[in-house]
Amino acid sequence: MKAQLALKALGEIMQWDDSRAQTEFQWLRLMARLKYDAYEDFRAGARFIESLVTWLQQFDQEDREPMYEIVRRRIIYFGGEELQRLVDLFYPRTLEKRLVKNICKKFNIPPFRFWVHAEAVKEFRKQLRKTLIMALSDGARIDQLRRATYGLLVNDQFVGMTQVDEDKWDELLKELRKDLGDPSARFSHVVLVDDFMGTGSTILRNESGEWKGRLPRFRKTLNNIAGLEEKAFEPEWTLQVHHYLALPRSNKQTEDRARKARTELGEENWFPNIDFTYELGIPDEFSLAKDSRFVGLSKKYYNSSVETDSTRKSGFDNMSLGYGECGLPVVIGHNTPNNSVPLLWYECDARVVKGVQEPEMRPLFRRRQRHIT
């Protein structure tokens, strides 16, 4: 009944005739049931349709139709099932494929002969156990990744964070050596996992000549424990940074920054080998930053309270198109990235800044703020 009332109110505020309202209501009911109602940050008693009504009401009448079209045509929504699929694909499409390629090269055999080559398969199982997977944030879904690789990897190959103490490293090594029956076994491959890469600055960025982000922090963690790298890792160990979702352009830019960091910091203060992978890329053409009408609306309804010291680390002060001016219409079921356009996730009060009135804004998909580390 509440949804019915919300739909009636929506038809009125959008000034739809009966034919248009019937068409849109059918679509909204379907999408709410199949996707949007499952968004984790909707508050109790207000799901997608109710939130849409409240959200559209804050725009001037002439702006409601183009804003509704963003929801109708442009939003890219990744719900729990889609994310689970990307988690499931990590092992067969990324980890196994990588190990097989390296071992085929080592034994000088073609890939089609790999699984009938006894020594190659034996080496594969050893290298698989020498792989360690660590979460860059709670978006890594380590629990789901562990279940998706049940019978292939063991629990001691998963760590829910990258900042762990010496006791934890000793425990991980102890289990590795016990499983392999080798008292000197060390890890050969470490994978840092996260859900989404927008600009890559959370991973690695240069601030006033100093390299910061999650990669330098992980490097510092290794350096802070005397002799850890030599004890825990093989000499030419590989670090892989993997995201379930990413902008291909940003992935490439992060690779370039990593090469520059290696040059500036020196090999001894960086990683022996590092690469960046992702499961699903979001092409630049999906960005709203090139939609002149939307850019105008984003400026018209801009509230600068969203700007913080963290958002300025992208190199842009203005956040009207999101962090790093990505302009993404992306919504992820457990949170909306700040690279997405703020008009989708704004939650701020009206205020006057330098004589300019900035509007009160309420979100369609409420976002939980997470600071850059």
Explained architecture:
With 373 residues, the chain is of the alpha/beta class. Helices cover 43% and strands 16% of the residues. It has twelve helices and eleven strands. The strands form four sheets. It has a five-stranded parallel sheet. It is elongated.
The overall strand count is: 11
Content of β-strand: 15-25%
The description of the largest β-sheet is: 5 strands, parallel
User: Which series of helices and strands comes N to C?
Assistant: HHHHEHHEHEHEEEHHEHEHEEE
**What is the count of helical runs?**
12
What value does the Rg take, in angstroms? 24 Å
What key phrases describe this protein's structure?
5-stranded parallel beta sheet, 373 residues, alpha/beta, two-stranded parallel ribbon, 2 domains, single chain, 16% strand
Summarize the structure.
This protein has 373 residues and is an alpha/beta fold. The chain is built from twelve helices and eleven strands.
